[in-house]
């Protein structure tokens, strides 16, 4: 069972105050309880417990019994989650309607900062969830595991996934290339990073640090998306050379249309003598 401190943090993330979270948890463990008992068992000051109970009642997380002295019982956790979910959806819809009259156009190709590890994962999941044709990803084992369900769901709907990592990859795909270096060893020489490209159109790239607040970048700038894609192509190409493995099918799939024309130009001029400019 999750310890009380972590459970309190989870409830705070749902909008509870510290006192409200502690009181609700205490009520789950000891019910029915009077306000005095709740204050004593939760550590919430008696001067605050009345307002805390009133707010929990208003939320629907607790209800009073017709007893003297008055006692309280909690709304069961599953019902509480359903209640919060309905309330959140209602508030979200109200906000959507209130903001719908703003017609703000965002210039394409802009670079957006995603602040914090959790927000980075949220953005990655959002991108993976809307991918239609391809997903190219270069990441470490930890991030691959945390995105595993989303990547598997994308595979099941027919999205082609090409993945690279220096660490182990748990993704079941013939196009998942890995050196299988343990994270603990790689951390001595490298920092965690993630590159995620969907449909040759969007890019998420940056540090994957869950201890310190770092920024990752999201963009639909075609040039930057192509540069990041080429970075993964290079890693996979070098992997093929080092491991003596044929990776040509994946490399070709990652190249955008037009590369065949570039290949012809390279072939045409590769033996031409270049005159020095100095």
Which key features would you list for this structure?
about 280 residues; alpha+beta; Arc Repressor Mutant, subunit A; Endonuclease, Chain A; 12 helices
How would you characterize this protein structure?
This protein is of the alpha+beta class. The chain has 2 domains: 4-95, Arc Repressor Mutant, subunit A; 111-256, Endonuclease, Chain A, CATH 3.30.870.10. The chain is built from 12 helices and 10 strands. The strands form 2 sheets. Strands 4-10-9-8-5-6-7 form a 7-stranded mixed sheet, with helices on both faces. A 3-stranded antiparallel sheet has the order 1-3-2. Helix 1 (4-13) packs across helix 2, helix 2 packs across helix 4 (46-59) and helix 3 crosses helix 4. It starts with a helix and ends in a 9-residue tail after the last helix. The model has no long low-confidence stretch (mean pLDDT 88).
